Amino acid sequence: MHVVVIGAGMSGILAGHRLAQAGVSYEIIEKHDDVAGTWLVNTYPGCRVDNPNHNYSYSFAQRHDWPFHFSTQDVLRDYFRECAREFGVDQHVRFGSEVVSATWDEPAAQWVLTIRRSDGSEATERADAVISAVGQLSRPKLPDIEGRESFAGEWFHSAQWNPQVDLAGKKVVVIGTGASALQFLPIIAPECGTLAIFQRTAPWLAPTPDYHEPVPAGLSWLYRNLPGYSEFNRFSIFWRMGDGALEGVRVEDGFPHRPDAVGVMNDFVRELLTQYLRAEFADRPDLLEHVIPNYPVGAKRGIRDNGAWAATLKRDNVRLVTDGIERIEPGGVRTATGELVEAEVLIYGSGFEASKFLEPITITGRAGLDLHEQWEGDARAYLGVAMPGFPNFFCLYGPNTNIVLNGSIIYFSECGTRLILGLLGRLARTGARSIEIRRDVHDAFNEASDAANLKWAWGWSEVSSWYKNDRGRSATNWAFTLLEYWQRTLAPVPEEWVLGD
Ligand code: NAP
Q1: Ligand 1 shell residues, CB under 6 Å
Q2: Which terminus of the chain has fewer Cβ atoms in its 10 Å neighbourhood, N or C?
Q3: Measured in angstroms, how far is the CA atom of residue 394 from the centroid of ligand 1?
Q4: What is d(CA 427, CA 430) in angstroms, rounded to the nearest whole number?
């Protein structure tokens, strides 16, 4: 059995490691020249993980010497590099190569992949199974604003940060106030001549005093030396920030319909976080009225804050612009009220094409079935892993496996990998050549998932977020508990899958 994994980021390294442990031959196709995926690519100033490292790390590669509670991009990139090296995964990666298509060859029961190298040449590779590990947040999204192409100054997206552009003394405009923007804005603000921040929707802030702090020496000593201390810390984070936090975002039956709360607990959390904002902006009522969100906590991702956001917005050279954007012009951004906010540099903190799963890869399954045509822009899978009509093709961090609260995506990828290894194990043990999810099982799961997503703040609220696709359906988020994903991915349920000769 030979498996091709697409992508050598967090999920791809994990898949490679588990395949090797199972004695399966594999190769990883990676478009960049190094491993680490999102932690390689996102180099914007201030980039760091917003989930404590003890949780955001592989269960089988725990470190007890993280330098920060929430480490910086370079630390995470190096961690994934070290894991790839330690587990020998880097030896299996074909770098500078991108999978452009995958086609199921029915008679051979194999996938035929077309791989484009960085020099433009193409190669073909066969695999008994394919694991997609391309991530959800790897394709930057530029906002659909009239005149974007006409801008005469320098511009770039946060995920394609251009260090050659000197911001010193310049008129800088940033569009977006999401997780990426709130990390780089406090760092660049002191450099810029002026900094205008276009906010469409205010983010909820999660007060985190130690967000930028190093792990104190005494605590680090405990992690390293006191048996069980580090593990219990990990479990405690996992519970508090995972399933333990879900009650705060549950839509409560009978709760009065309001735009900013979905239940008594959710309203209580809203009040707590509003108090934080009131305290942070107590001396700036002009800003306060614009920074309190008008949607429920949990409808969008909360953003960690140690006071940096208020300090940035209060700077003399910084202006928060909440008027809508009319268009982009050569000299800057025209607001809906007719003002031209001048810009020499325009930075898009505008997020990612999260719902466009597996684009731009062409994937052709049984009987010429095109995956993107089957999805029609509304990606679905069974447990995020498998799609009917596409035997032996599996996804990690696929549709409906993202989380809004601070669980860890690594957990989802570890669970998904275990299920995929179970499926490959069934092929090996039964001698079957293909395994595919039953369409009715897939459809029933998706129906239940859609219904369950509507019972959480992110599915209920109509506020804009990358959790919903163009149809307004949450195609990204897991609708149940973390525990349930663990249970459902322990091993394949044999009756749910169709084996083929
Ligand atoms: P994002 O959360 O999707 O934020 C995009 C921002 O751009 C939002 O403020 C959005 O406004 C704004 N925007 C988009 N189109 C616009 C338009 N046409 N006009 C005006 N504003 C527009 O993207 P992100 O900040 O890159 O974060 C994405 C996700 O990546 C996060 O939720 C998180 O899961 C992950 N992330 C994690 C970390 C970390 O772990 N440290 C750091 C960064 C990102 P609206 O809110 O009104 O839509």
Answers
A1: 48-50, 137, 143, 145, 158, 175-181, 183, 198, 200-201, 301, 325, 349-352, 464, 466
A2: C
A3: 27
A4: 5
d(CA 197, ligand 1 centre) in Å: 13
**Angle 311-315-317 from CA coordinates, rounded to 5°:** 150
Residue nearest to atom 1 of ligand 1 (CA): 351
Atom of ligand 1 nearest to the CA of 465: 48
Q: Is 225 exposed, middle or buried (0-12, 13-18, 19+ CB in 10 A)?
A: exposed
Do the beta carbons of residue 359 and residue 139 sit within 8 Å?
Answer: yes
In sequence order, what E strands does 284-392 have?
303-305, 318-321, 325-329, 332-335, 340-342, 345-348, 362-364
Which of 478, 500, 496 is closest to 415 using CA atoms? 478
* 3-state SS class at 156: strand
Best residue for ligand 1 mutational test, from 42, 53, 466 (most atoms within 8 Å of Cβ): 466
Which residue is it, tokens 């999204």? 141
3 state DSSP class of 429: helix
Q: Which of 51, 180, 199, 458 to mutate to test the pocket of ligand 1 (most atoms within 8 A of CB)?
A: 180
Please tell me the total number of residues recorded for the chain in this structure.
Answer: 501
d(CA 164, CA 167): 9
- What pLDDT, in 10s, does the model give residues 137-151? 999 999 999 999 999
Beta carbons of 380 and 395 less than 8 angstroms apart: no
Reduce the DSSP state of residue 18 to 3 states and report it: helix
DSSP state of 496: G
Mutate to test the pocket of ligand 1, among 137, 304, 321, 458 (most ligand atoms within 8 A of CB): 137
Query: Is the backbone peptide bond immediately before 360 cis, with ω within 30 degrees of 0?
Result: yes
Q: How many CB atoms lie within 10 A of CB 431?
A: 8
Which pLDDT band holds residue 445 (cuts at 50, 70, 90)? very high
Of 350, 359, 436, residue with least CA distance to 393: 436
Answer whether 0.90 is exceeded by the pTM: yes
**How much helix, strand and coil, in percent to the nearest 5, is found in the chain?**
35, 20, 45
pLDDT of residue 304: 97
Which of 440, 367, 390 is closest to 132 using CA atoms?
390
412 touches 406 (CB < 8 A): no
Over residues 398-425, the mean pLDDT reads: 96
> Token pair of 75, please?
């630390």
The Å distance, Cα 3 to ligand 1 centre, comes to 34
Distance of CA 288 to the CA centre of its chain: 29
Closest C-alpha residue for ligand 1 atom 2: 178
End-to-end CA distance of the chain: 15
For strands 2-6 and 25-29, give the pairing: parallel
Model pLDDT for residues 64-122, shown as the tens digit of each residue: 999 999 999 999 999 999 999 999 999 999 999 999 999 999 999 999 999 999 999 99
